[in-house]
Amino acid sequence: MAEPDQIVILTGAGISAESGIDTFRDTGGLWENHPIEQVATPEGFAKDPELVHRFYNLRRAALSKVKPNAAHLALGRLQHEFAGKLTLVTQNVDDLHERGGSSDVIHMHGELLSAFCSACDHHWQQLSDLSPSTPCPACQTRGGPRPDIVWFGEMPYQMRRLEAAVQACDLFVSIGTSGAVYPAAGFVHLAKTYGARTLELNLDPSQGSAVFDEARHGPATKLVPEWVASVLA
Ligand code: OAD
């Protein structure tokens, strides 16, 4: 089989599971004991901004207690040593890819360490807690700042760039994602339509597993370093 020149890697919650961050669908549709619609929708935020800020403040603070695992580190190594073009896109809002050595990571569902103002659309790095009375650093509106998380019903980031990368790649790899949430779940179909080989690395078969040309099942900390070693061999 020809060596790939352009690789797109899509990651999901499964790659961070062994670092100690809960996945979504393995916890019965709850995110840290909250129904998704309470903490991951614009309606939930409008109804109770205090609760939603508290929820993301806890998630943000929890990042300091987790570390990148062997799968994040292997992808960081791949980005530095792979001679072709690599696009790393994650549905995760944690910063473990960056701490694992990856750069220019596309966070299509946003980032815990970022915030933006719903009044003026200013974006900034957010390391401390937010509250409904936090003023926007640009326009000073209180109540404007919100977590930079793509909630249900909102448009994921950088879709045009992502679609172009998926159409141009010759290898598409999906790691640790259930394939339950679109548009990310549709990337494998797009990649195949444009002639790429497709590979799934996941703990167990995802919803779209049968669509992939090849699927390997097991923990990310085992499968990802093995796959990276084979690409770089
Ligand atoms: P899910 O929780 O839906 O799926 C996680 C996947 O990771 C499952 O298929 C598990 O089998 C797999 N998995 C678990 N542990 C693993 C391990 N150690 N190694 C490899 N795989 C493992 O998470 P996502 O697919 O990321 O969206 O969810 C997609 C989106 O749904 C999230 O980004 C979030 C959520 O609602 C938003 O917040 C907008």
CATH topology of the largest domain: Rossmann fold
Main CATH class of the largest domain = Alpha Beta
The unreliable regions are: none
What string, H for helix and E for strand, traces the elements in order? Answer: EHEEHHHHEHEEEEHEHEEH
> Kindly state the mean pLDDT as a whole number?
95
From the alpha-carbon coordinates, what is the Rg to the nearest angstrom?
18 Å
Determine the fraction of residues in helical runs and give it as a percent range: 25-40%
The number of E-state strands comes to 11
Number of domains: 2
What ligand species are in this complex?
2'-O-acetyl adenosine-5-diphosphoribose
Task: Report the major sheet.
Answer: 6 strands, parallel
Give the full name of the CATH homologous superfamily of the largest domain.
Answer: TPP-binding domain
Shape: globular
Q: From the 3D coordinates, which CATH architecture of the largest domain would you assign? A: 3-Layer(aba) Sandwich
Structural class: alpha/beta
Compute the separation of the termini in Å: 14 Å
Number of helices: 9
Strand residue percentage? 15-25%
Strands ordered across the widest β-sheet: 5-4-1-9-10-11
Cofactor: Zn(2+)
InterPro entries: DHS-like_NAD/FAD-binding_dom, NAD-dep_sirtuin_deacylases, Sirtuin, Sirtuin_cat_small_dom_sf, Sirtuin_class_III, Ssirtuin_cat_dom
GO cellular component, one term: cytoplasm
Domain Deacetylase sirtuin-type: 1-233
List the helices and strands and how they pair.
Layout: E1 6-11, H1 14-17, E2 30-31, E3 34-35, H2 36-39, H3 42-47, H4 49-62, H5 70-81, E4 85-90, H6 96-99, E5 106-107, E6 110-117, E7 123-125, E8 145-149, H7 159-168, E9 171-175, H8 187-193, E10 197-202, E11 214-217, H9 220-232
Parallel strand pairs: 1-4, 1-9, 4-5, 9-10, 10-11
Antiparallel strand pairs: 2-3, 6-7, 6-8
Helix pairs in contact: 5-9, 7-8
The chain binds 2'-O-acetyl adenosine-5-diphosphoribose.
2'-O-acetyl adenosine-5-diphosphoribose binds at residues 12-14, 17-18, 23-26, 40, 91, 109, 150, 176-178, 180-181, 202-204, 206, 219-220.
